[in-house]
Specification:
about 30% helix; about 100 residues
């Protein structure tokens, strides 16, 4: 969410506030019997944990490097995280 964590965004958005002109109090804790914000935070945590679990379970991709860019030489597979930034646009999956 624009480079912010989901929990950080929730803290900013779901704060108790009072409208200066009308005096109306906006208390997100009062909505849905006082459990709305708690359930929302628990949902965000669950989605975050499950996302990490799914991403960690994905297979690693091996990439073939163009000449001069790869840390292991031409045509050898390597982890994309080892790639210099100026070479990333020219790397392609090994099965390409």
């Amino acid at each position: 969410m624009n480079g912010r964590s989901a929990l950080g965004w929730l803290v900013d958005q779901y704060q108790m506030s009072t409208d200066k002109e009308s005096g109306i109090v906006n208390d997100p804790n009062a909505y849905a019997g006082g459990t709305y914000v708690l359930k929302l935070v628990l949902s965000v945590i669950t989605v975050s944990v499950e996302t990490v679990r799914i991403v960690d379970g994905l297979p690693r991709l091996a990439f073939r490097s163009p000449e001069r860019c790869g840390p292991r030489g031409k045509g050898r597979g390597y982890d994309l995280r080892e790639t210099p930034n100026h070479c990333r646009a020219r790397t392609r999956p090994l099965d390409a």
